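Key result, reporting period 2: structure in, sequence out.
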């Protein structure tokens, strides 16, 4: 009598006294994963283990993380530009008072990072 695994086309190989299923993970094109994608990967491994395992075993994890990374980076950059305009942070301010410009831009980047984390990375 065949197991369900064998009926679905699976094969076993003998390793010592045991029959082990021959399993392969689908290969996918490697894409670079940036900081945002790495953060989301850590989140998936820690809090969304089923999603992580499903993406890994169907060969879509790298593509998924690259897409998340791209979305997050684009959102981050858009938020920074929008906040700079709303708060009147210009190149002129940078020339006149570099210290204030640096501090205000740092605050904007921190706010944008929090928004991206909430909306994309840890959602």
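The corresponding designed sequence is given below.
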């Amino acid at each position: 009598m065949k197991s369900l695994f064998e009926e679905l086309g699976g094969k076993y190989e003998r390793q010592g006294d045991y029959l082990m299923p021959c399993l392969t993970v689908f290969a996918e094109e490697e894409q670079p994963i940036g900081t945002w994608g790495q953060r989301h990967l850590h989140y998936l491994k820690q809090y969304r283990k089923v999603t992580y395992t499903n993406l890994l075993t169907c060969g879509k994890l790298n593509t998924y993380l690259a897409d998340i990374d791209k979305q997050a980076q684009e959102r981050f950059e858009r938020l920074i530009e929008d906040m700079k305009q709303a708060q009147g942070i210009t190149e002129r301010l940078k020339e006149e008072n570099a210290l204030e410009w640096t501090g205000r831009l740092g605050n904007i980047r921190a706010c944008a990072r929090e928004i991206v984390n909430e909306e994309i990375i840890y959602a």
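The first strand starts at residue 12 and ends at 15. The chain is about 65% helix and 5% strand. This case is discussed further under Risks and Mitigation.
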